[in-house]
Amino acid sequence: MTLLSVQDLSVGFFIENEFALAVRDVSFSVKKGEILCLVGESGCGKTVTSLSILRLIPPNGRIVEGRILFKGKDLCKLSEEQMRDIRGKEISMIFQEPLTSLNPVFTIKDQIAEAIMVHENASKQEITDRCITLLKEVGISEPEKRLYDYPHQLSGGQRQRVMIAIALACNPSLIIADEPTTALDVTVQAQILTLFKELQEKYNISLLYITHDLSVVAQIADRVCVMYAGIIVEEGSVEHIFYSPAHPYTKGLLDSLPKRHFKNQKLKSIPGFVPDLLSRPKGCPFHPRCPLTEKLCTEAIPDFKELEDGHRIRCHILG
């Protein structure tokens, strides 16, 4: 069953008296109980896409076209009041840096309880019990004591666990996680990823996981969408992306990963940079960095081509 379906989404921003598209013609879906990873370099439009789903894009931005269907409802057509009923209850979001997402002057209990009080009719004791249960679920020891701590009293990993507890507070169907392990060390990152997987399997929650780190994708994803300069260039299962990548950008990302068995060798990189919002090239946005570029690539954005069941790419040359 498809829980979320993003169809032909385009989002733009007013910058320096110009209007520029940050996301163009993006389509993907998330099934019930599935983990979909949205991956790409910084500036590719991943976060803008996720914020658009919750209608939280900044005031200088707007959704130009497209539909965002959640349980059959088009979120683009809902009122702000209707969206407030969905945010935190049916769709939750976990942001990259928990220290800036958590309010420093409120206790952990206050911040977990807020979502429950907004969306549910529960007594004070029921809310306290729920907060303790949630902290246990996310692996925080002595939850009865930690409830009354402030964010600065917790480690980075504990703060991220609290953010996950807040996201789970109202039993959402979909959690959007925007680079939630980027600021954590490798050991804590592995623990948080394991926690995500366990919670997703236990509660059959759908997860839209946004990252630039392909090693994270390999650990957690069921399916993957690779984004570049505002468009999705490749989509497929995790096996497609890692064992038979097709798009030159996807291949470049994989080639950039350090290899354990290659000692004293330079790391590979993709030449050039992601173009900024006001200087996106005409045609395929990857063509200035692509080794396969031909004239057609500079003239038009390629359509999606189906390589095999569920594996698609945008490329004029391949497929």
Explain what the structure shows:
- The protein is α/β, with parallel strands linked by helices and 319 residues long.
- It has two domains: 2-90 and 172-314, Rossmann fold (3-Layer(aba) Sandwich); 98-171, no CATH class.
- The chain is 32% helix and 26% strand.
- The chain has helices at 46-53, 80-86, 98-101, 108-119, 124-137, 143-146, 156-168, 186-203, 214-220, 238-243, 248-255; strands at 2-15, 18-31, 35-39, 61-70, 73-74, 91-94, 174-178, 206-211, 223-228, 231-237, 304-308, 311-314.
- An eight-stranded mixed β-sheet has the order 6-7-8-3-9-10-12-11, sandwiched between helices. Strands 2-1-4-5 form a four-stranded antiparallel β-sheet.
- A hairpin with a 2-residue loop joins strand 1 (2-15) and strand 2.
- Helix 4 (108-119) packs across helix 5, helix 4 runs parallel beside helix 7 and helix 5 (124-137) crosses helix 7 (156-168).
- It is globular, with a radius of gyration of 20 Å.
- It starts with a strand and ends in a 5-residue tail after the last strand.
- The relative contact order is 0.14.
Question: What's this entry about, in short?
Answer:
With 319 residues, the chain is α/β, with parallel strands linked by helices. The protein folds into two domains: 232 residues, P-loop containing nucleotide triphosphate hydrolases (Rossmann fold); 74 residues, no CATH class. Helices cover 32% and strands 26% of the residues.
Q: Report the biggest beta sheet as strand number plus sense, adding barrel if it closes.
A: 8 strands, mixed
The CATH homologous superfamily of the largest domain: P-loop containing nucleotide triphosphate hydrolases
The helix-and-strand class reads alpha/beta
How many independent structural domains?
2
Number of DSSP-assigned strands: 12
Order of helices and strands: EEEHEEHEHHHHHEHEHEEHHEE
User: Helix amount, in percent?
Assistant: 25-40%
Q: CATH class of the largest domain, anyone?
A: Alpha Beta
How far apart are the termini?
29 Å
* Shape-level CATH architecture of the largest domain: 3-Layer(aba) Sandwich
Which descriptor suits the 3D outline? globular
- Low-confidence residue ranges: none
Rg, nearest Å: 20 Å
Largest sheet, order of strands side by side? 6-7-8-3-9-10-12-11
Average the pLDDT over all residues and give the rounded result. Answer: 92
